[in-house]
Design brief:
The chain is mainly beta. Strands 1-3-2-6-5-4 form a six-stranded mixed β-barrel. The chain has a four-stranded mixed β-sheet with strand order 10-7-9-12, with no helix packed on it. It is built from four helices and 13 strands. The chain has two domains: 3-96, Ribosomal Protein L25, Chain P; 103-187, Ribosomal protein L25, C-terminal domain (RNA Polymerase Alpha Subunit, Chain A, domain 2), CATH 2.170.120.20.
Length: 220
């Protein structure tokens, strides 16, 4: 996996006011930690960070972080976001070594056309979207594929059906379901729709007709 160089400023002040000032300057506060090193408060450019993670490796991009003329091989971990705005508010940069095995999550891609499911108006129900793995930093794949072209209604594909590259160890349960072929949804009846809306539908029976008067005696 290629590395991306990212410049970082050290010596940033901590605290909410300093953090707000950094963000107003288009920078993201963060910290570099790992392998017994003292945590280093840093700041990186928001745009540069976004570009660095825009490749196919995404969050598993190896970042060569330049801090005070020193280089740290890192991965961006525990990326915090603003609760309302789509902006990054803090980043933890974890120091890694090229020869160590680390844990990571990679996305699962569905490939192929599930012809039988489509012909039966069924639904492709993806239940697992990421795979937990262990590998050396350079061996972490950007994603894994699972072929759903043979999927049928009522059948499932599991983690054990995914082929991972050499040097990658699965941490997710191999029996976990990745995708299932579901039957078509049945249209709800009027009574079910009313019940879902909170309206009680009571069955009515036709009442027997009552006599209008006493029967006249039969003529003799």
């Amino acid at each position: 996996m290629p590395e991306v160089t990212l410049a970082a400023e050290s010596g940033r002040q901590t605290g909410s006011s300093s953090t707000r000032r950094l963000r107003s300057q288009g920078k993201i506060p963060g910290v570099v930690y790992g392998h017994g090193s003292e945590p280093i408060p840093v700041a990186v450019g928001a745009r540069e960070f976004q570009i660095a993670l825009s490749g196919e490796a995404g969050l598993n991009t190896l970042l060569s972080l330049e801090v005070d003329k020193k280089n740290f091989l890192t991965l961006a971990r525990d990326i915090q976001h603003h609760p309302f705005r789509n902006v990054v508010t803090h980043i933890d940069f974890q120091i890694v070594r090229r020869d160590e095995v680390i844990s990571a999550e990679i996305p699962i891609n569905l490939i192929g056309e599930p012809i039988e499911v489509q012909h039966g108006d069924g639904i492709v129900d993806q239940q697992l979207f990421a795979l937990a793995i262990k590998a050396k930093p350079a061996d972490i794949p950007p994603s894994v594929d699972i072929d759903i072209s043979g999927l049928t209604i009522g059948a499932s594909l599991h983690v054990s059906d995914i082929t991972v590259p050499k040097g990658v160890e699965l941490e997710t349960d191999p029996a976990a379901t990745v995708v299932a072929g579901q039957p078509p949804r049945v249209q709800a009846t009027a009574e079910e729709e009313a019940e879902a809306a909170g309206v009680t539908v009571e069955a009515t029976e036709e009442a027997p007709s009552e006599p209008t008067g006493e029967a006249e005696p039969a003529e003799g």
